[in-house]
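the two lines:
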Amino acid sequence: MALQLRRKTHESVIYIDRDSAPRIMPSGEDFILEDLPIGTRVIYPNPTIKGLPNREAAIRYALNHPLGCDPLFAQLEPGMRVTIAVDDISLPLPPMATPDIRQTILEIVCDMLAGHGVDDVHIIIANSLHRKMTEWEMKRMVGPRIFSDYYPDRYYNHDAEWADGLIKIGETRHKEPLVLNRRCAESDLLIYVNINFVPMDGGHKSVAVGLCDYESLRMHHDPQTIRDSDSYMDPARSALNHKVIKLGKIVDETLNVFHIETAINNRMYGADMDFLLRNEDDFTAFDRMKFEAMRFTMSKLPRAARRKLLHSRPSQYEMTACYAGKTELVHEKIVAKGFEQYAIPIRGQADILITGIPDISPYNVYSILNPLLVQVMALGYHFNFYRNKPLLKTGGVLILHHPCYDDFDHQFHPSYIEFFHRLLPETRDAFTLREKYEREFANNPSYIEMYRRGNAYHGAHPFFMWYWGENGRQHVGHVIAAGAENAHVPAILGWERADNLTEAIAMARSYMGNSAEITMLHQPMIGIADME
Amino acid sequence: MASFKKSATTFLSLPVFAVTDQYSRKVFNDLYFQRYKGQSEDRLRYFAQELFEDVIKPAVFPGAYELIDQSRKLGLRQVVITGALDLSVKPLMEHLGITEYVTNRLEFVNGMATGRLLPPVMAAATKASWIRTYTEREGISLSDSYAYTDSMSDLPMLSIVGHPAVINPDMRLRQTALHHDWPILNLK
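prediction for all of em together
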């Protein structure tokens, strides 16, 4: 039995047997040790692909050998108007150790622009309806040189609510409008600088979503599109991706876009914490000591301090590829490179899927993972990390581990609070929420001001977060929040709760049977279950 | 000399006003508006216009214009309820294009201020009751209404609308807003 279970199907997939060590699971700002039932399949991140040894050279090569268009230098003329749009810090996670890849690219591109007499250059963060980045975050992302040269007049956040700063560039044949940042649309050349963290990033989404307004975004960020995306991490089967490509065609017809995309490996942590990504059976004594030391330290700290500590650990991602040129050609290469790092071949769906929810998501950088974001991580991201078919069977049980505290960031997520406490107790139906309340929140003057002048997510953003979990919600039979410290948060989200993982597994088995196939995603991980 | 004496008195009164405002906005109003006793209406109107041009207009936060524009786009009616005097509020309302406002009014006898306010005195709970009466008369839903303030004394007003928000709050109002999960706006 044990020998059969130990048989490896892939180096990232292991089975728990009698001798297996307990597994580490993130649960908010904590890391817990859990003994899993014998036979549980545990999926780890793939081994890290080595980063490019000289990323500056790789970027310069990409700029000079683009796909489908002339090299960047050949497109430049003195006096032309150029805008550089960059991804915001919702990716990668956690934020990169400096220098950020965006900094490296910007320094090279800006030097090239200056060398060709191009002085009318603006750098715009393509934050769409995400919160605007703070001054400190903006400086950290691009480095002191770019920051001092461009901030604040020529380096700023996109504003999706500034009517004068937006322009309609076209519409699809279904009359879906595409309104984009005016400066980008009216530039002679738009250079987009991307980091591709998960397969749904990049491509036409960069410009058509990152620089659009609310009315344009709501056309594809809707419950039906998400339901039809199986999954949104699988570009070929993502209705969201197909809709964005249609918008991208309009962008290509109207704007001159030079797209620079990069792929990164999965080196989330440095040597001090990289044991979190490894098989516990292979831990050295030093690894165990590091884990126990971390757990001891964390146990002595209040939650806010633990959060601060974890968010202050920069990730150690390395660039594995850089391509430039026409959006679709570039994106195809980068997505393929991303799957090379992330795809894990998996045979057989699970009846019960276990996932720990770490303290960080794309939407709470330097902030709190509020209940709505716990939802988006569980039923959105973690559930959707598959290709071909879901890792979990239809009607299966998803067990997540998180304290589910009722805590929100008032500065970053003001509209989330009202959404969670006022709307969800009334209905969890995504279509009703969209029809009845989405525009009310989007047009709320308070939320618009907090988005425009502060650092708040747009008033409509919590709706998109709820829709983001729609595919998972329709597929999963039960969701059990293990380790939830209260009853009302899981209840509002429509979940059951359990004190701990053991109790949650017992509850799940009562639904799925004692011989249920159990799979655990070993978080934190960026990996795509490539289902056979 | 008289001017110097008045300025010195005003300066020395500031701590008293601050303490009184913390205690009760109504008591603050009673005390504060005593200072207008004996002033002629013409003179106050003249100074009010000067006050608007030199002090109030430059101090309007840029975000305030955006907030008003945004609410206009939504088809909301803008009503200003303030404890300030009608004399000084009128030019500001004309500047902002707001036609509906309610203010405090000084009592004048033979063209001279008595230092008292005409009822109803707009402060704290009075604002809330005025809003309730107004919305009932106009058929406006309080649940769909928005209220904005930077003053803790307006807590009753914030409590009766569906969408309360605080603007550039002090510590006490910020804590209250955080406690009630109200949006906190910075319009600077």
